[in-house]
C-alpha cells in the first residue's frame, strides 16, 4: 500500500483571520495581520516583507474599488510543508478584461486592477476570477518551501459564526494509492464544543490505518465522535484515474460533483455522527474529466448554479471555494467549504 501523502486540514484556531476591508485604515490592518499569521511560519525577513506588501496592495484595491470587500489570511499545511493563503472577495464592479487589469497601473471605471500585477509576481501561486457587475475573487499563495504534488489540487475556507472565536466546521484531505480522500465535519452547534467534535473527526480521519471505503471511514468516525457533541459528516473518495467518486455522509453536509454546465448532488443518510446513525450507505458517481468535487457545511445554502459563474470552475479550487463562500455563505452559522480537482499532468 502506498503511503498517505498530501495530508492537509483546515486551519487550526489562530491560524486564520477574516477582515472586512472598508476604510482607508484597512490596508494597515491587513499588513499587520499578514505579519501576525506569517511570521510564526518561518519566512525570511525579505519574504515576510513581500507578503506584507501583497496584503497591503490587495487591501488597498478592495478599499478603493470594491463593494463589500473581504480578505482572509490562512495557514495551509500540506504534509510537512507550510504556506500562507491570501484570499480576497468582493461584490464590486468586476473586471471585463482580467489580463489587461493584471498589468500594473491599469484601472478603468473603478475596477479592481491596480496592484494585481505586483501581487501575482510576488506570490508562488496566483489565481483570479472576475465577472462584470458581479465581483472578483483573487487568491495568492506564499509557500515556505515547494508544495508536494499528489495528483489533486485542493482549496478550502472556514469561517466561524460572527462573534465566535473558533469554528465548529473543519475539513481534511489526503491521497493514498492515487485516490484523494476528502472529509468535512460540521460539529453540532457553535463554539468550543462544536470545534472539539470536528477536531476529533480530523484526528480520527488522520489516524486511520490505510484508507478503507468512505462507508467504513464514516463508521469509524461515527465511533470516534461518541464522546463529543457529534456532528454532520461526509467522506468522498475521488478516483480521477477511474473517473469515479465514492461518497458516504451522515447529516446535512452537502456533496457535489460540479461541471461548468451543471452539478450532481451526492446523497447522505440522516443522522448525527457520534450519536444517531440508523444506516451507513455509500454511493458511487461518475467523475467527468475536469470536474470539481465540493463539500460544504449547511452554513452555505445550496441555491447556487454553476451556470451563474461562467469560467469559475475552470479556475483553481480555492477560487471556486471563495466565490461560493462569498455568495452562498449567507446563513448565520459556522461555514466551511472544501473543493478538490484532479491535476492534469499533461
Automatic annotation (TrEMBL):
SUPFAM superfamilies: ATPase domain of HSP90 chaperone/DNA topoisomerase II/histidine kinase, PP2C-like. Residues 147-342 form the PPM-type phosphatase domain. It comes from the Bacteria. InterPro entries: HATPase_C_sf (IPR036890), HATPase_dom (IPR003594), PPM-type-like_dom_sf (IPR036457), PPM-type_phosphatase-like_dom (IPR001932), Ptase_RsbX (IPR039248). This is Transcriptional regulator. It comes from Actinomadura craniellae.
